[in-house]
């Protein structure tokens, strides 16, 4: 406003000495109020003085009757002189703007607004808000207006307020004002478009919790949200890694029957596909095409990738072909995804076709894809293709990973290709790569099976130099030689291990010891046994008995001495028992029967029942061969007393008595027959009980041996395929013969060489009776030698 103009929006004071200053009036010594003054007469509605308007120099620019307003709130007009004029909207708005800009906020502003000489309305407030730029002032005017009786909720008003708060980044203010808008909407049943504006502002500012909370409030209030707002909200939560929230918003969008646009499809189809909701993604994809929206490359890529990873290869390929039909060129990422999916599904031929198609399209396979293709073909046994791609990988400038080398090397090793495996190993180490434990293990196993001891030793030392613990790997190689029956190679490898400071465990030492015994290498076996015993390993009864079985079958004096030395090296209590058994009562200081009972009482039958049976069988073989019949009968008697063979003797009242020796060794069977017949004789003579028949169940193996023994004393037993049987009366008469009494009391009339011959023919293995009857108990925990 210029200095020579009169403000039509100002009510002048009734002082002739006021000076205008930019629309404000100033006295020479004080500032007067804008309100027009009256004379002192009560009830007068006119001014009694003229009012002069001066410019800044003091010259009079206008003189006339003053402007007098009516009482506030009574009428919306002013008196200009004697004329009654209505207040213009522009004047009212300008007045409101002036007051707000002057006082900004607080009680003083509200006081000044309450003193306005007219009654504003929402139109005035909205127009004033458009002019005022300060958010605090906007809110102050709005809050004052809300308390007036003429206030009405206005959408445009809220829009301007939210715009101002967003410009000042006052999101707390936005949230507070949003809550007020919700209350207004509920009270007045009005829907505001400002809802969408608020949600967009909060979403763009990445206010996750606040935006979702406001979204739920809008939803609960029943107001309509537009498609763009839905899209912005869903995009926010997807970008923040909260797809389940985005899907919840999408489901709300569907429930509200809000129309989806192209952006919605582009946003939701990849998200649904990546989250595993493949059916929903496909449904939306079909809907997108039905509505004539053209899917982008991103939509196709996400569907192809997700379907492939889910194993739905046909659907994935169908979408891939559809994309090509639309003229879209597959990306390198899509090729990689397809090839990976088909490779992992084991469809290597299809993967190779895509591989070739990818290279024709001008894309270069990346490092990971090379690795995947090579390893997959290697593991499937297609080593030629794997090696071809491996060479292409090297030509492309990629350094294969240890995993790639390992898969190729291990598969070549598994197929027995020593040269190829060693070539890969040398290439790997020359490239500075460190083979893994599985790679070394596969290579060493291959070399062991090929009996390349020197090469295996070289590889093992290199493995040790790389920092690996080689004890287990070396023991595995040794075990391969043992299982192959290569005792010489086993002993050679063991010597190499000892010289290199590599230790093995007691289990393998025992296995090698047994192999040496089986092959008659007693000189090599004894040091192994001593090593086994000195390492605190316990020689169990089974191992001792197996050595005794070799002694039973031995026919060379030199070998007998070596076997006796091996038995002594076991330090087992059974050896002390054996030595005591062959001494006289003076040295034992107790009868042989008591001595035998004492030994068998020290056996834990819960743990060693099978081993005790094995020991009795072999021991009785040995005693019979040595002609120690009485000692053998004592051993059998005590074994039967301890119920090692509980079902051997059966007394079926007066009908039948039987002895079953099918599970016994030759010597044990002969001793059992003699001892049991002697028992039957005593029972028949002393008690006068005679059964109808007596049976000796021998089985086909022992039938001949037992029959030959009884035929020497003219026994009445008839020989069938598996049983020797005779009537009780006939046996009773047979028992009365002196030769039979002598036979049953003293010794078996059979030469040791005949018995030995039978042992060799009937039982060609070293210890047949044990291995088939009762498996040996687990070995004690292995300890390093």
From TrEMBL:
Coiled coil: none annotated. It comes from the Eukaryota. PPR repeats lie at residues 226-260, 261-295, 296-330, 331-365, 366-400, 401-435. Pfam families: PPR, PPR_2, PPR_long. Residues 659-735 form the Smr domain. Keywords: Repeat. Belongs to the PPR family. P subfamily. PANTHER family: OS03G0856100 PROTEIN, OS12G0638900 PROTEIN. This is Smr domain-containing protein.
């Amino acid at each position: 406003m210029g200095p020579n103009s009169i403000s039509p929006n100002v009510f002048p004071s009734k002082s002739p000495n006021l000076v205008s200053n930019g629309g404000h009036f100033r006295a020479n010594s004080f500032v007067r109020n804008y309100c027009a003054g009256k004379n002192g007469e009560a009830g007068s509605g006119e001014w009694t003085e003229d009012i002069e308007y001066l410019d800044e120099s003091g010259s009079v620019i206008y003189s006339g009757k003053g402007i007098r307003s009516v009482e506030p709130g009574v009428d919306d007009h002013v008196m200009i002189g004697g004329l009654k004029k209505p207040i213009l909207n522009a004047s009212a708005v300008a007045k409101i703007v002036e007051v707000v800009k002057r006082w900004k906020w607080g009680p003083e502003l509200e006081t000044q607004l309450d003193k306005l000489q007219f009654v504003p309305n929402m139109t005035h407030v909205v127009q004033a808000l458009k002019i005022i730029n300060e958010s605090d002032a906007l809110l102050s005017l709005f809050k004052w207006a809300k308390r007036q009786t003429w206030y009405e909720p206005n959408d445009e008003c809220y829009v301007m307020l939210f715009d101002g708060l967003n410009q000042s980044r006052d999101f707390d203010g936005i949230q507070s004002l949003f809550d007020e808008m919700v209350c207004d909407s509920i009270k007045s049943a009005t829907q505001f478009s400002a809802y969408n504006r608020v949600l967009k502002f909060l979403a763009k500012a990445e206010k996750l919790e606040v935006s979702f909370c406001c979204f739920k409030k809008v939803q609960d209030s029943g107001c309509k949200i537009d498609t763009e707002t839905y899209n912005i909200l869903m995009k926010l939560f997807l970008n923040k890694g909260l797809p389940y929230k985005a899907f919840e918003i999408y489901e709300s969008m569907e429930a509200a029957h809000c129309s989806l646009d192209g952006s919605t499809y582009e946003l939701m189809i990849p998200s649904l596909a990546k989250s595993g909701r493949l059916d929903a993604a496909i449904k939306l994809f079909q809907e997108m095409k039905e509505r004539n929206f053209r899917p982008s490359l991103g939509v196709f890529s996400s569907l192809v990738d997700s379907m492939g990873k889910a194993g739905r290869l046909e659907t994935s390929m169908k979408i891939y072909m559809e994309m090509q039909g639309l003229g879209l060129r597959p990306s390198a990422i899509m090729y990689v995804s397809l090839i990976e999916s088909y490779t992992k599904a084991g469809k290597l031929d299809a993967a190779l076709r895509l591989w070739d198609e990818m290279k024709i399209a001008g894309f270069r396979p990346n490092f990971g894809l090379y690795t995947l293709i090579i390893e997959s073909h290697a593991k499937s046994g297609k080593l030629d293709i794997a090696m071809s791609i491996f060479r292409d990988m090297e030509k492309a400038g990629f350094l294969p990973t240890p995993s790639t080398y390992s898969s190729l090397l291990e598969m070549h090793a598994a197929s027995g290709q020593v040269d190829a495996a060693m070539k890969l190993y040398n290439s790997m180490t020359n490239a500075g790569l460190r083979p893994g434990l599985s790679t070394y293990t596969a290579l060493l196993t291959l070399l062991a099976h090929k009996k390349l001891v020197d090469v295996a030793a070289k590889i093992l030392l290199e493995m040790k130099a790389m920092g690996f613990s080689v004890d287990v790997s070396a023991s595995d190689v040794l075990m391969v030689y043992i299982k192959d029956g290569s005792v010489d190679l086993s002993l050679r490898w063991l010597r190499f291990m000892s010289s290199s400071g590599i230790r093995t465990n007691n289990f393998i030492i025992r296995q090698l010891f047994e192999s040496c015994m089986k092959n008659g290498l007693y000189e090599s076996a004894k040091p192994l046994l001593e090593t086994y015993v000195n390492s605190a390993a316990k020689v169990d009864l089974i191992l001792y008995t197996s050595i005794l079985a070799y002694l039973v079958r031995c026919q060379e004096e030199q070998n007998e001495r070596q076997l006796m030395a091996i038995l002594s090296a076991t330090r087992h209590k059974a050896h002390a028992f054996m030595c005591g058994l062959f001494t006289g009562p003076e040295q034992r200081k107790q009868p042989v029967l008591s001595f035998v009972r004492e030994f068998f009482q020290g056996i834990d039958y819960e743990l060693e029942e099978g081993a005790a049976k094995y020991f009795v069988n072999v021991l009785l073989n040995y005693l019979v061969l040595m002609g120690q019949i009485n000692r053998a009968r004592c051993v059998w008697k005590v074994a039967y007393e301890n119920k090692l063979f509980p079902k051997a003797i059966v007394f079926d009242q007066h009908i039948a008595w039987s002895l079953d020796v099918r599970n016994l060794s030759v010597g044990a069977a002969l001793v059992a027959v003699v001892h049991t017949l002697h028992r039957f004789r005593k029972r028949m003579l002393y008690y006068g009980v005679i059964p109808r028949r007596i049976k000796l169940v021998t089985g086909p193996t022992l039938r001949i041996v037992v029959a030959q023994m009884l035929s020497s004393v003219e026994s009445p037993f008839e020989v069938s395929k598996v049983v020797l049987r005779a009537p009780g009366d006939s046996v009773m008469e047979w028992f009365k013969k002196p030769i039979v009494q002598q036979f049953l009391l003293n010794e078996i009339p059979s030469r040791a060489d005949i018995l030995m011959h039978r042992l060799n023919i009937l039982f060609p293995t070293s210890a047949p009776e044990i291995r088939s009857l009762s498996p040996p108990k687990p070995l004690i925990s292995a300890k390093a030698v």
